[in-house]
Amino acid sequence: GVHNALAGLVVEGGRSSGTGEGALGPGEPEGLFGRASELRPAGRPAEKQTLHAPISPYLDGCTNKEGAKGGDMEQPDGIKRRKKATHLTYRDRTDIETIIRTHWPYGRRIIWAQLGRYMGRSWRIVRTEYRRGRVTNRSSDLVEYDTYSAEKGQAGADALAANKGPRMRLTNILADRLRYWIVDEKVSPYVAIMRMRKEGYSWVPCVRTVYYAIERGDLEIIRANLPYGTINMKPRRRGRRMAYRTLRGKSIAERPPAAEPRIEYGHWEMDTVVGRTGGSSACLLVMTERTTREEIIRRLPDRSQRSVIRALRGLERRPDNLFESMRSLTCDNGSEFWDFEAIERSSLQPKNMRCTLYYTHPFSAFERGSNENNNRIIRRFIPKGSDIADFSLKTISLIEQRINAMERHSLGGISASQAKRSKRYEPAA
Fold it and tell me: Which pTM does this prediction carry?
């Protein structure tokens, strides 16, 4: 400060001259009187110094650190120190509301400079904030007056903050196209994005962006429009359940180990999908290839062993014989699959085997995970409670084609049909 600077000054004349002692400051007994500008270091010309005298109207100078520690720049009467340019928070707005209601109640004229000093802000900032959150109240005498509301001011600030940042790239054209794929075509956001990329759009949002937009309501799509809608967990059954299992067939533990890593083509899973209770006995025979997720769907007149064997014979007699490249076939312990000998026996060459059948453990649907997941996709087109007899053979064939043409995240964005045609999945010799 100025006092420290004056301690090293050498003054001509006086009793300190030639003694080496420090000169007494202005105003001290037997010291120098007058302005500090009259003092100068030895060997230097007089310079303009900060005014420092008891009668000076100027304040003592102090550093920023001294002021921050509560020096001479400390503001009295609870007035906040001036801050850097920062946005007002909700707490600041509640302080403004409280100060206005305390010092200028019932619509009295506000002194903006004083309010700014209380808040440690510029008077323009508090005046602009007051205009943003201005509301009209009514006194007990039914006299209307203007005042400030922190909630309205915060709401206005949030609305303005929503326009910050770069312009949203999810345009109306992209939103309409996403609604078409998700709502009309009943595909997942991932499949919709993959198909829009194939359509040649210059920019397509990522999956997470689409889900965020759905949650915000930007796409006019609700969770019920998604393929699986809202997830409702089924209550667990209490008590013991009967486990049906054929004792003569082969267990899944005996299946070739090459089926587990999903690298080798030809390992299939099989199940049936039933219709509503009380309807017709028609059901679907569903077969899924583990590596490519290729799907085969056949409608059966009933859920019997005879109908299953007849459907497998029809697949064997097709020009593209499915069983020529089949290495294993895994199913559950349903009664329609108990006749494993008839399922394994070839109808073209009775002495040869059509395939090798393996049974999963009771209540272990996860051992046929690919098959169960494709059954869930089928339910997008044939919801639970529907009568399968109401769906024609042509409709079921179209559902099969749509599933096989659907892009899969597990396959790196390609469909089951493309995965089957790729060189990675060579059929069995």
Answer: 0.60
